[in-house]
Design a protein that fits this description.
By secondary structure, this protein is α/β, with parallel strands linked by helices. The protein contains 7 helices and 8 strands; from the N terminus they run βααββαβαβαβαββα. Strands 5-4-6-3-7 form a 5-stranded mixed beta sheet, with helices on both faces. α4 links the parallel β4 and β5. The longest helix is centred in the middle third of the chain and has 13 residues. The model has no long low-confidence stretch (mean pLDDT 90).
């Protein structure tokens, strides 16, 4: 597309996972101009209310039933699958990571008792948590989320999931590379 200021796009950090897989270009800076951060969404590990009280409760249950526990994921290449893979490796729980087509499908799987927990964007679960149907066991962040001050981080629970560095689920606006700096400045101010 032309770098004319009329073409903008919405992107998430899942793009980085796709780039690592070779599915999309890994030369982000040659292809795009970053305009602004739209939001950073905490990655949350949730369960049906009453199933587990803590992340350790889930991990101990999963370890006792190796290969039988299911973690529902809302995508294949994002931060959730990365963190759950590292959690599997660290704990030896060998939970099955199943990727579904959306966060709402993950909600259905957990509430329908087809998956023990889900690991996805907090916004996928916010309504069910507010309604008392789901419980957030932990967040995959360096510090506690402002939205969830009483919910521990996975690291606080004793698991170092940042061995590859901190990965954040972000949404941001982009434009084609080569955008005139004045146009970029105007867009950044508007957005």
């Amino acid at each position: 597309s032309k770098a004319d200021g009329y073409t903008v796009g919405f992107m998430t950090s899942t793009y980085l996972g796709l780039a690592a897989q070779g599915t999309v270009s890994s030369d982000f800076e040659s292809d795009f101009e970053s305009l602004c951060l739209v939001m950073e969404d905490p990655i949350a590990i949730v369960c049906k209310t009453g199933r587990y009280e803590t992340l350790d409760d889930f991990i101990e249950d999963a370890k006792s039933r190796k290969g039988e526990s299911i973690i529902a994921l809302s995508n294949t290449f994002g931060t959730g699958p990365t963190y759950c893979t590292l959690l599997n490796e660290q704990t030896g729980m060998d939970a099955e990571l199943i990727c579904y087509d959306s966060g709402s499908r993950c909600v259905t799987e957990v509430l329908g008792d087809h998956a023990e927990v889900s690991c996805s964007n907090y916004t996928d679960f916010v309504d069910q948590i507010a309604a008392g149907e789901m419980t957030c066991l932990a967040v995959c962040m360096e510090e506690r989320a402002e939205l969830l001050p009483d919910v521990p981080t996975v690291n606080e629970c004793g698991y170092d999931i940042f061995s590859l560095g901190y990965l954040s689920q972000m949404s941001f606006m982009v434009a084609p590379a080569g955008l005139d700096p004045e146009i970029k400045e105007k867009l950044c101010k508007k957005l």
